[in-house]
Amino acid sequence: MHPKNFVIWDAEQEYAKNLMKAIGSHRELGFQMHLFQDTEHLEAFSQQKQVHILLLGEEYPPEQRQQINAEKRYVLIKAGDSELLPEEKGIFKYQSSDMILNSILEEVMEGEAIPGRFKGMSKGQLIGVYSPVHRIGKTKFALELGKELAREAPVLYLNLEDYSGGSFYFPENAEHNLTDLLYYVRQDNGNIGLRISAMAGRAGALDYISPMPVMQDMRAVEESEWLRLFEAIFENSIYKSVILDLGEGVSGLYRILRECQTVYTLYADDPASAAKLAQYTENLRRTGFEDVLEHTVQKRVKGKAGEGV
């Protein structure tokens, strides 16, 4: 397999850096990674070197994109109505780097064997949504992300917060909730897939299990039980992705974040939010979970903390 120049061209600097780092970590694929925000520099680069893969943001107008020479062209889109050129393929932007990479590898490898170390979507992807900043729209973001991903494959949403506000987002008085599902997993029930299907509600194309109504019940679940639950879902159900809406009260929070293929961390541009994000980052480093940052996508939201839902 010959080295290929993989170019990321996106105006969201922090997002682009994280994505390049995540894709570049798969050194077995032999990609030479390049990152651009400036159009003129990219155009000059494409005239000097062959661009095998161009992954670009939809904010660049089509007439500007046509100036860049590339063998394969992929556009990171935020909705389904983006204007694409005939030679371009759209990829939903806010999904895991592994899903983005898998979409590209299907075409780019052209029959070449994909190295075994890259597992990608072999059993499904666990996506975490967490922020040390409260009232920032985390649950709304997690639900919207799930609905977008559910357009392509089955997705299950789980809320693991002390106070989920379930009646605000989902119908009240659900017959079953996450407590019941954990019970069946603890019993090694062989019909977990059927149990999930019977319990799951629907929000558009997104499936969900109603959250635990009692905070003490949620906090009593051990880290190993959560991990066992996630494994059982992927082993016994149709879901290709599980989105975890996480709060501080869940046991083994950092370990769960480590197991996620992608973690979305929301933040706002105000001093208090910045201080909380810095403290969270330092805590990860001090407790030996710095690797969580390697698959974290920081997502800035408009407004200040306390204004979101």
Question: How does this structure look, described?
Answer:
α7 (178-186) crosses α10. The protein contains twelve helices and twelve strands. β3, α3 and β4 (72-77) form a beta-alpha-beta unit. The protein has 309 residues and is of the alpha/beta class. Helices cover 37% and strands 20% of the residues.
Quick one: biggest sheet? Answer: 7 strands, mixed
Range of strand content:
15-25%
Give the strand line-up of the largest sheet: 8-9-7-10-6-11-12
Distance between the termini: 48 Å
How many helices? The count is 12
Average of pLDDT: 85
- The shape is globular
Percent helix range: 25-40%
- Extract low-pLDDT stretches: 113-122
What would the keywords be for this entry?
seven-stranded mixed β-sheet, five-stranded parallel β-sheet, 37% helix
Short structural description:
The protein has helices at 13-24, 39-48, 62-65, 97-108, 138-149, 166-169, 178-186, 192-199, 215-220, 223-236, 253-259, 271-286, and strands spanning 4-9, 31-36, 53-57, 72-77, 88-92, 125-129, 155-160, 201-203, 206-209, 241-246, 262-267, 296-300.
Write the layout of secondary structure elements.
Blueprint: E1 4-9, H1 13-24, E2 31-36, H2 39-48, E3 53-57, H3 62-65, E4 72-77, E5 88-92, H4 97-108, E6 125-129, H5 138-149, E7 155-160, H6 166-169, H7 178-186, H8 192-199, E8 201-203, E9 206-209, H9 215-220, H10 223-236, E10 241-246, H11 253-259, E11 262-267, H12 271-286, E12 296-300
Parallel strand pairs: 1-2, 1-3, 3-4, 4-5, 6-10, 6-11, 7-9, 7-10, 11-12
Antiparallel strand pairs: 8-9
